[in-house]
Amino acid sequence: MPDGKPPDLDRHHRYPEEEREAVYRVMAERRDVRQGFLAEPVPDEVLRRVLEAAHQAPSVGFSQPWDFIVITDRERRERIAALARGHRDEFAADLPGARARAFDRLKIESILDTPVNIAVTCDRTRGGRHTLGRHVQPQTAAFSSVLAVANLWLAARAEGLGVGWVSFFGERELAAELGLPAHLEVIAYLCLGYVTDFAPEPELAMAGWARRRPLSWAVHAGEFGRRGLPGEESVDPLADVIDAIRLLGLPDAAAMAAASERQDRMIKPRGSLGVLEEVSVRLAGLAGSCPPPLPEPACVAIFAADHGVHAQGVTPWPQEVTGQMVANFLAGGAVVNAFAAQVGAEVTVVDVGVTASLEPVPGLLPRKIAPGSADFTAGPAMTREQAVAALTVGLEIARDLVAAGNRCLITGDMGIANTTASAALVCAFTGADPAEATGRGTGIDAATFARKVDAVCRGLALHRPVASDPVGVLAAVGGFEHAALAGFILGAAALRVPVILDGVIAGAAALAAAALAPDVTAACFAGHRSVEPGHAIALSHLGLSPLVDLGLRLGEGTGALLALPLLASAARALRDVATFDSAGVTEKP
Ligand SMILES: Cc1cc2nc3c(=O)[nH]c(=O)nc-3n(C[C@H](O)[C@H](O)[C@H](O)COP(=O)(O)O)c2cc1C
Question: Does residue 450 line the site of ligand 1, with CB under 6 A?
């Protein structure tokens, strides 16, 4: 507004205010409805109106690839409901602990509770081969049918009709049940009926299954990664998260005081839960509430990358093992998978810099910054830009996993030679002596150990990294997984979600995170103490005490996973245990 006057938008063809409001309102209030349906039939003229709205949808080359199968027959719907039940059970059997319990409480379809179902199909061949636009992008035919669904859904909301979309079907299996010709594909199966209520928020959000991502995470100015809403300054996600942590003022002293006070009133001798009392108080301080939410569901993110310093003979393991272990994590055959299954956590693998090219498979997040870092004894391990990019990957993964409903994040890592880079980071951030901070990693002989210490010494001498420039330290001697883990830890803290740290790699990453935002330690729980000497140095610098000490030195996230039940028990005790006053039990004088 250069002259300070608001622009006169009414000279354009916009709708009058009330009508505009109705349009925005129907979008905000459209809900996927699965419960509270009434048996009342839907009048034919109402159905005709919503189908007419669906039929107004845009379509590629104006191909109008949709058809609508309106189903009321009870027996057919019973068969369709049985198909959905089968897939529901299959999905449920695959879910980790807390997710499975939450899923059990969710209703995923209302096929029999609604008076009418509509299957929306797509004919990818309609209109012949010269359909404008579809010739390069065949998937646009299906997109067009989805737009018809969107129109139907909005019109239905305006009519007061609830709609629930069910996708728990094998597409061909449903097409066969509907007797569709082979050239038609089912795009959506919708259940329609009048309802007692429209929920104010998505049912999945209200059930805590997932959260809405803020719009500012989704809008980019000009290029992907330059986030910012129109008219607002573009935000740098890393600076944003560091600011957010500072502004939170973690930990919340009042919530911690309330938790300590409750611990003292709980039916048990004061202090008898030992370290778990502190854990519960710290969880309350992080959440800013007492009791804090239970740290579940939980997800371990295994950040994987390769290291140029491998060339210095710091480990007997060949570099290919990083990629091979990633495949093993994804196939479910590693120790981390066994421990995650035992404690009910999900496993996600993030390729931030593995040398090998990895095939896309479910559970793998491809976020490669570069195929391995450079040898830090010869030059910087990465550029500053790459370090920031890896930090940003980590914090965005933390955000996405929290938006997906996780209430506890767990660090995992994989990268042959990453204990060497970890030792260098620990020395740079704490001033420790390389001979003391360097460990034997996967079990190495004296000569390899000497080369490892020497590589760390040479790296530090070459770059002279200073702790006050954490990005510079990561770029000089870190690994992509260290930088991404530091971002992951920051991302969790900014959302007040606890993050359980695994061994020395996570410890080194947490030092970088704490150097960027000192309050981040309020979100960090040291899962265990690894036998790597640098780990104890990192933990003591961070002021964190390990929850278990079992002589582990595997990495992957294994030690952190073992601590998850301890965090969950601490939070649950604070929430569920009765107090002397509430239970009428006499306190010790
Ligand atoms: C393509 C698609 C498939 C969906 N499939 C299912 C489903 O099988 N079961 C279910 O309960 N909800 C399903 N949903 C509904 C989503 O869970 C719902 O749209 C989301 O939670 C957001 O809530 P809202 O629609 O109320 O805003 C589906 C939604 C879409 C767009």
Answer: no
